Amino acid sequence: MVEIDRNILVLGVGNILFTDEGVGVRLVERLQAEYDFSENVTLMDGGTLGTRLMDPIMACKYLVVVDAVLGDGAPGSIYRLTGDDLRKSLAFKNSLHQTDLVDTLIYCDILGNRPEAVIVGIEPHDYKTMAVDLSDTIQARMPDLMAAVLAEVAKAGGSCTLKMKE
């Protein structure tokens, strides 16, 4: 049975300047625009902040990270990663001054509060070209990626409703 009052953090990470590397941030932006979430759910643009994300990560009980993931699948393949599989995440790799997500979670563990974590990721089509728009391949898969993230939120005890269009 899932606790209804657990704090759930949906963290979109990546560098929006490198095409599909910014998919996590872009997905969180879409979720914020299209849904209202229960009080126990926080959505956050984590960008490439690295260890500066420790405070919000340590404050939650369940962490859902949305990121571009190199999993050797076809571009647009969606992954659910936990445990050792977290190392496949591209999080923070394009920043020369930040540690990656796995190191950040290790630091949280050392300090005594590492939340249960899952990465919902997607195989990028292009993460090297400097452009702020997602590739057509990833753009077409956004509804499926969004559904996977919303399923994780629901599994953790969160809920959401579609915002009314004006």
Automatic annotation (TrEMBL):
Any one of the GO BP annotations: protein processing
Binding-site residues for Ni(2+), renumbered to this chain: E21, D67, H97
Cell cycle as UniProt keyword: no
Cited CDD domains: H2MP_MemB-H2up
Database matches in InterPro entries: Pept_A31_hyd_express (IPR004419), Pept_HybD-like_dom_sf (IPR023430), Peptidase_A31 (IPR000671)
The entry's keywords: Aspartyl protease, Hydrolase, Metal-binding, Nickel, Protease
Entry GO MF terms: aspartic-type endopeptidase activity; enzyme activator activity; metal ion binding
Protease among keywords: yes
Source superkingdom: Bacteria
Family of the protein in this entry: Belongs to the peptidase A31 family.
Protein name according to UniProt: Hydrogenase expression/formation protein
Organism: Desulfocurvibacter africanus subsp. africanus str. Walvis Bay
